[in-house]
Amino acid sequence: MSDLLFELFSEEIPARMQAQAAADLKKLVTDALVERGLLYEAATSFATPRRLTLHIVGLPPSQPDQREEKKGPRVGAPEAAVAGFLKSAGLASLDEARIDTDKKGGQFYVAVIEKKGAPTLDVLAEILPATIKNFPWPKSMRWGAASAEANPLRWVRPLHAIVATFGPETEEPEIVPFEVGGIKAGNVTFGHRFLAPGALKVRRFDDYVSKLYDAKVVLDPARRRDVILHDCKDLAFAQGLELVEDEGLLHEVAGLVEWPVVLMGEFDAGFLDIPGEVIRATIRANQKCFVLRDPATGGLANKFLLVSNVLASDGGKAIAAGNGRVVRARLSDALYFWQTDQGPLPDFSASGKPPLDQRLEKLRALNIVFHAKLGTQGQRVDRIIALARELAPKVGADPEKAARASELAKADLVTEVVGEFPETQGLMGRRYAELQGEDAEVAAAIEEHYKPQGPTDRIPNAPVSVAVALADKLDTLVGFWAIDEKPTGSKDPFALRRAALGVIRIILENGLRLRLADLIDGALAWHLTEPDPEIDALSAREYLMTVKHLDIAVGLAKRRRTERGEIVAPTGEGYLRAAGVEGELKAFFADRLKIDLRDRGARHDLLDAVFALGGDDLVLIVRRIEALDAFLKTEDGASLLAGYKRAANILKAEEKKDGGGAFEAAPSGDLLVEAEERALFAAMETATAEADAALKAENFEAAMQALSTLRAPTDAFFDKVTVNADKPELRKNRLSLLSKLRRAIHLVADFSRIGG
Fold it and tell me: Which domains are delineated in the chain?
């Protein structure tokens, strides 16, 4: 077995592209090898700012030999058919073919084609240049005199060298013979750009990694991240400070250096008056530096950590000082933005309103478009206010506080700080709201209404925050569904999957008893048309029910907000579309919930079994799934499932004969002649009543416990009773009894969807 070392050495590779490029390199080469019958033991890819590297272990010396039997025409076929067969099979004459006989006694020609496997070195010489030429960079360039030629080599930055060696560990590896863009593959790479730029002759992977390290290059990005994180924590600890960890920034800076050196910089303590989040955003965005926390105060310290790519002779003092000057300049800008946002706006100060309210007036006055078919940001704020006010009582929030938080939720979009650092939206709104004396719940909701923004982000649990967060996400989902802008495949430009998952997590983690249909209809009401002055006192739900009547659709449609696009049609199709939106969105939420629960370890078949019953109270759905899972782990549950499967299989077979629904009628007590079928009938009457009562009380455990009493009589029925009796009336009655059993069990879940 042999190993492949493949390196592509170039100018700077953008940090944001490195991880994907390494993954692409591995996939392209390994897929091509497998396609050609070359299996391997392991493959690993790496990226640094200047190189992509692939190491493949355990490749065979050559492709396996291939033997193929090609069936030809029958014996005595026309000459043209025989000639075509000989040509396609590569045979000189029929003497080289075999004659076989089929089952009917007919004879036909067979060509046995044997192909010797090519040496792996030759296969690599075909695969590797094709990989380079067709590499899927998001952006690439051509360079030098060759750029004027037809089909020049394109790479993310100019490509300088290619390492491609192949061979067993015990022998000197061979160089894979190929050339791309005037660059011949070889066994020479280069060290660190500044610290050890000389050429390095390498043989195989271990030798390559060792020589790179000696030349001040850490090949593995995971190791570079570990070095940076460890040194950052040590340097912070030495100064009595704590590192504010940032996983995203850590990955980014590890992609900017080949030999990480952590240094500490400093800025004026006066800048600590700026909110810590703004300081962090400034230093992170402009200088790619980590901020530090002072444990004595709990706030940020006036020091930061940067990652250099060189070992400076002065220990990095000049580098740290230079970064400090840039940071101070950036923080001066941030301080100006922060102070400006707290003052009045010249064009809106006459209203005498607080600063954040003036920004809301500016947001409305600028008519900033949210989406061409969904109106402006100001119109969106109006919808969120209305929906949050309606949702507030349902989640235990004060409606007026929810409305006020919704009113100010988007005002910080036109502040100076958010304009410079968009990632601080919401958070800055909260800060400005606190400064102008807003209620604490209102201020918190302004920040938290964006949450959760990812699977690990915290969930808002304060009632006002919950109301505004749900209103914001539901408005987004319903709006884009109404204009038919739904996620497709991997594309989700408006983050609708994240919004739906956010709604689900908020509902589940706060235990909110809300129906999806009500939420969707409530949000949809404010998208359909301009509210009629005569009915604008109605709730959103009542309003929606009103406009769904097609006899008034024409009148309402004339008053629609035309700038939102043709969402509502005068003929009433828009209202039919509204009904479709509800169904589609409920299905979308169901899919998101299934994915969320599956990620938590729930069985997919149990999800399907419960979802088949319908219903859109997410809390109840989850509780039912949990109870079903626990029940099926018991002996009674497993046995009842087996009995159900047996009954369902019998019914399925007999319904094919008699037609679907043939046994849906209730079984007749007069035709229950065997003791076991009478016992099963009686047990079902009791169990069904108890299960139904338990389900109405939302006690799923008790419902399943009631059904577990059917285990023994079901087993006895199948042991002693012949279902397909000779007498037609007995057969039909017993099948009706099994149908009744199926319906009883379906009270808690559709057991037909459960495996096992």
Answer: 2-62+119-214 (3.30.70), 66-115 (no CATH), 221-341 (no CATH), 355-599 (no CATH), 618-753 (1.10.730.10)
**Order of strands, edge to edge, in the sheet holding 66-74?**
66-74, 107-115, 98-101
Which has the higher per-residue pLDDT, 218 or 531?
218
Whole-angstrom Cα distance, residue 31 to residue 24?
10
- Give 457's Cβ-side CA count (13 Å radius): 15
Amino acid residing at 46? F
Q: Which of 321-335, 367-381, 402-416 has the lowest mean pLDDT?
A: 367-381
* Helix, coil or strand: residue 91: coil
Nearest to 689 by CA among 702, 672, 677: 702
Mean pLDDT score across all residues of the chain = 88
Mean pLDDT, rounded, for 738-750: 89
The upper half-sphere exposure of residue 1, i.e. CA atoms within 13 Å in the direction of its Cβ, equals: 9
Contact 523, 387 (CB under 8 A): yes
User: In this structure, what are the phi and psi dihedrals at residue 199, rounded to the nearest 5 degrees?
Assistant: -75, 145
**In this structure, what token pair is assigned to residue 79?**
């000459």
**Is the per-residue pLDDT at 564 higher than 50?**
no
According to the model, what pLDDT value does residue 96 have? 83
Entry pTM:
0.75
d(CA 48, CA 598): 36
Roughly what angle, to the nearest 10 degrees, separates helices 463-482 and 496-509? Answer: 150
What's 377-404 look like in SS3? Answer: HHHHHHHHHHHHHHHHHHHCCCHHHHHH
What is the C-alpha to C-alpha distance for residues 137 and 47, in angstroms, rounded to an integer? 14
Structure letter (DSSP) for residue 155: B
581/548 Cα distance (integer angstroms): 13
Instruction: Taking each helix axis as running N to C, give the angle between helix 516-528 and helix 573-599, from 0 to 180 degrees, rounded to the nearest 10.
Output: 140
Mean pLDDT of 661-677: 86
Task: Dihedral sign for Cα 128, 130, 134, 140, please.
Answer: positive
CA distance 89 to 78: 17
DSSP for residue 753: G
| DSSP state letter for 99 | E
Segment 660-669 shows an average pLDDT of 81
- 714 with 640: CB under 8 angstroms? yes
- For 405-416, what is the mean pLDDT? 96
Tokens, residue 120:
């792996």
Q: Looking at 90-204, list the stretches that DSSP marks H as alpha helix, in order from N- to C-terminal side.
A: 120-133
452: cis peptide before it, omega within 30°? yes
Residues facing 10 on adjacent strands: 159
- Using CB atoms within 10 A of its CB, is residue 155 exposed (0-12), middle (13-18) or buried (19+)? buried
Whether residue 566 has pLDDT greater than 60: no
Strand order in the sheet with 300-308: 242-243, 290-293, 300-308, 261-266
Q: Residue 119 in contact with residue 174, Cβ under 8 Å?
A: no
For 719-732, what is the mean pLDDT?
88
Q: What are the tens digits of pLDDT across the range 33-83?
A: 999 999 999 999 999 999 999 999 999 999 888 777 888 888 888 988 888
Question: Is the predicted pLDDT of residue 625 greater than 50, yes or no?
Answer: yes
d(CA 93, CA 89): 10
How many whole angstroms separate alpha carbon 393 and alpha carbon 460? 16
Q: Which two tokens stand for residue 389?
A: 């006010």
Residue 104 to residue 120: CA distance in whole angstroms: 44
Longest dimension (CA), the chain: 103
- Helix count (H) and strand count (E) of the chain? 27, 18
Alpha carbons 158 and 178: distance in angstroms, whole number: 18
Angle between helices 463-482 and 377-391 (to 10 degrees): 130
Residue 121: Cβ-neighbour burial (10 angstroms; 0-12, 13-18, 19+) = buried
pLDDT at 203 exceeding the cut of 80: yes
